[in-house]
Write a structure and sequence with these properties.
Elements: H1 24-38, H2 43-50, H3 54-66, E1 70-72, E2 79-81, H4 83-93, H5 95-113, E3 116-123, E4 126-133, E5 148-150, H6 155-161, H7 166-172, H8 190-203, E6 206-209, E7 216-224, E8 230-239, H9 240-243, H10 246-250, H11 253-268
Antiparallel strand pairs: 1-2, 3-4, 3-8, 4-5, 6-7, 7-8
Helix pairs in contact: 2-3, 5-11
Length: about 270
């Protein structure tokens, strides 16, 4: 029998196997499901939906926040999905699955643009390239599968970072310092990075002009899971000497956005 909470209804506690009703663990799990579905939940709403006292709902939410499963906008504000919940979701999808789902789209984007297309995942403050389809051109960016780069110094990394909350960014960069990058073109200041992340959110894609490596430029977007969290990054990389300008690499932005939408559709439609 389903025990799913209706969108506007209250949950009816069910007896546990030992004859008790709605343990704290059970309530905490329901809160996580509610926050995952609604993306924002206040103490009063949580108490009403669970059928418990506000003090009980507040205690449970405080415990979840302490463990990183939820974040709070401000004191007495709404609770939202936290980094621990995001990381569990990422692990559940799994790298093998995202590679399998995204691979046909990578190949299609390579055929459309004739440039190298890569798939990456975020690991702390770095990104790891987990799949790549090389350009057929004689002068091209090579396969970088397995390569690790600082997230802030790559288009794919910045695209993923732009999808994280301020709290999550601060958790990953607790001292506000950016790791050393390979080139002098890479950003060095956290304030400058955060300003660029705002621009990336506005335009929908990120750019890189010789920040991750000399002679390489790129454009990238974040691939989001079914609840809108950044799951991975997808990008096009090309020799900057052949592309010629930032505006020229920016012109690939719409194609990368379309590819990201195709991946999202493949993630949400059962195969």
């Amino acid at each position: 029998m389903s025990n799913k909470v209706p969108p506007t209804g209250r949950r009816t506690p069910e007896p546990a196997s030992d004859g008790t009703t709605s343990t704290s663990v059970d309530n905490a799990l329901w809160l996580l499901q509610l926050i995952g579905e609604r993306q924002a939940l206040r103490v009063a709403e949580a108490a009403d939906l669970l059928g418990v006292a506000r003090s009980t709902a507040h205690r449970l939410l405080t415990a979840l926040r302490r463990r990183g499963f939820v974040n709070q906008d401000r004191p007495n504000g709404a609770y939202r999905p936290g980094p621990a919940l995001y990381e569990i979701g990422l692990a559940a999808v799994g790298r093998i699955d995202i590679r399998r789902v995204a691979r046909p789209v990578l190949e299609q984007l390579r055929e459309e643009t004739q440039e190298t297309v890569s798939l990456v995942v975020l690991e702390g403050t770095s990104v790891r390239f987990i799949d790549c389809v090389e350009s057929p051109r004689s002068v091209r960016v090579g396969n970088r599968t397995g390569v690790i780069r600082p997230a802030h110094a790559s288009a794919v990394g910045k695209a993923i970072l732009a999808g994280l909350s301020e709290e999550e960014l601060d958790r990953r960069y607790p001292d506000g310092q950016l790791p050393e990058a390979a080139t002098s073109a890479a950003l060095r200041d956290m304030t400058v990075l955060k300003a660029e992340l705002v621009e990336i959110r506005d335009q929908g894609f990120a750019l890189n002009w010789e920040e991750s490596g000399e002679g390489v430029c790129a454009v990238a977007v974040a691939l989001r899971d079914t609840v809108g969290q950044p799951l991975a990054g997808l990008g096009i990389a090309a020799p900057s000497s052949r592309i010629g300008s930032r505006e020229a690499i920016r012109a690939f932005g719409p194609a990368v956005l379309r590819a990201a939408e195709l991946v999202h559709q493949r993630l949400t439609v059962p195969s």
